[in-house]
Amino acid sequence: MINTPKSIRLHIALFGRRNVGKSSLINALTNQELSIVSETPGTTTDPVLKAMELIPFGPVVFIDTAGIDDEGALGQQRVSKTIKMVDRCDLALLVTTNQWDEPEERLLKLLKKRNIPTIVVFNKSDQIALNEDLVKNLEQQRIPWLAASATTKQGIKALKETIIQLAPARSEIHPTIVGDLIKPGELVVLVTPIDSEAPAGRLILPQVQTIRDVLDHNAFCVVVKENELRLALDQLKNPPALVVTDSQAFLKVAAETPKNVPMTSFSILFARLKGDLTTFVQGAIAIERLRSNSHILVAEACTHHVVGDDIGRVKIPQLLQQYVGAPLKFSHVQGHDFPDELSPFDLVIHCGGCTINRRLMQSRILKCQEAGVPITNYGITIAYSLGIFERALRPFPESFSAFQKLQKSGAKELID
Ligand SMILES: Nc1nc2c(ncn2[C@@H]2O[C@H](COP(=O)(O)OP(=O)(O)OP(=O)(O)O)[C@@H](O)[C@H]2O)c(=O)[nH]1
Ligand code: SF4
Ligand SMILES: [Mg+2]
């Protein structure tokens, strides 16, 4: 269990002023001395993510944060880093002792806006009396609250139970990848090119997670490199229920997979898993609006080492410029470095996001929507610019029909 990727764990963030006992509560909830605790306010200066087992719930990530009341230039930077954690959390604990003012109200408003289940925790209940007026106010707003003490452990069991009760369902945190596209006993062919970008000695996370999902649904799979696909298909008694390819081998795989066999890419599967396929389809259609020097943000969720013919830095820019027939301007971000200011961009193209959780990808989509900037992802962009979009989208009826409607009613109008 300890090796469960962070991206599929429930993310629980603790927010609150300095010194209210956020780090102590994480230690009490996990029964381990994971976070540094001290009586000096401002001990936690940066968000700290700890992968843990929350028994009996299962794999979670606790996010410890710096106080929301920090002051000065440096303090403000810490506060904004804390606020950024709202983008990633599936559930929030808003910790206080009895003080409640602008910092708490501001955070609560933001959590509400994002529909993040929130529990208000009155910590240090061994020393500090409950703020009855505040409790009444929270009850009127139907916000769950609890009194607890990280020191005496009073209320910790109830807090765990409330967390488990309010946590989004596992299927929301990590929905199935292919389970709804295949039936038990069916065969899936996975095409995974092993090129200079492939890590030594292992498969990459989207491939591993797809294999696991196939097995979870009592189906089975054959994994091949693109050059062995034809051979593999020839040797099968029946055609596979689905072929999934790495986007880089799209054209070859589309040509060699019989027309009646559904085919898509890992990147499209992950667009659906992490984000919103239909939004990404709309984003792809925005490619039609790109003109000379349009500005495109290419965002990668992890900080992998950039190699020669890197997909985000070389292949996508090449393909898009070829498709648009004009030079385009590209900016790149990696890791958690996603800009707050999106208005300079005409399009955002995101990677599959296999290392980040669904909530973070959805927060990024929301930011793009709020800024009126279309967003799509790697696999969708590649399929679109190669002219095999319809084929790769066909296994997903809802997004496919959204695509057809967009086409019919004139892409430009709909995007405007
Ligand atoms: N009496 C009492 N003291 C507590 C409790 N929880 C934490 N403390 C103490 O409060 C102080 C601050 O605890 P931390 O867990 O470091 O608080 P924090 O919110 O993480 O603080 P920052 O990282 O500075 O923002 C420490 O001296 C803890 O021992 C509690 O339930 N009761
Ligand atoms: S760049 Fe994106 S899709 Fe590729 S490995 Fe990193 S997180 Fe996963
Ligand atoms: Mg702390």
Uncertain spans: none
* Average pLDDT figure: 92
Which strands sit side by side, in order, in the main sheet? 2-3-1-4-5-6
Shape: globular
Percent strand equals: 15-25%
Rg, nearest Å? 24 Å
Total strands: the figure is 14
Q: Could you tell me the CATH topology label of the largest domain.
A: Rossmann fold
Q: Report, as a whole number of angstroms, the end-to-end distance.
A: 47 Å
Layout of SSEs?
Layout: E1 10-16, H1 22-30, E2 48-54, E3 58-64, H2 72-84, E4 91-96, H3 102-113, E5 118-122, H4 132-140, E6 145-147, H5 156-166, H6 170-173, E7 187-191, H7 205-216, E8 220-224, H8 229-235, E9 242-245, H9 250-256, E10 263-265, H10 266-274, H11 277-285, E11 295-300, H12 311-324, E12 329-334, E13 347-350, H13 358-371, E14 375-377, H14 378-386, H15 389-393, H16 397-408, H17 411-415
Parallel strand pairs: 1-3, 1-4, 4-5, 5-6, 7-8, 7-9, 9-10, 11-12, 11-13, 13-14
Antiparallel strand pairs: 2-3
Helix pairs in contact: 11-16, 12-14
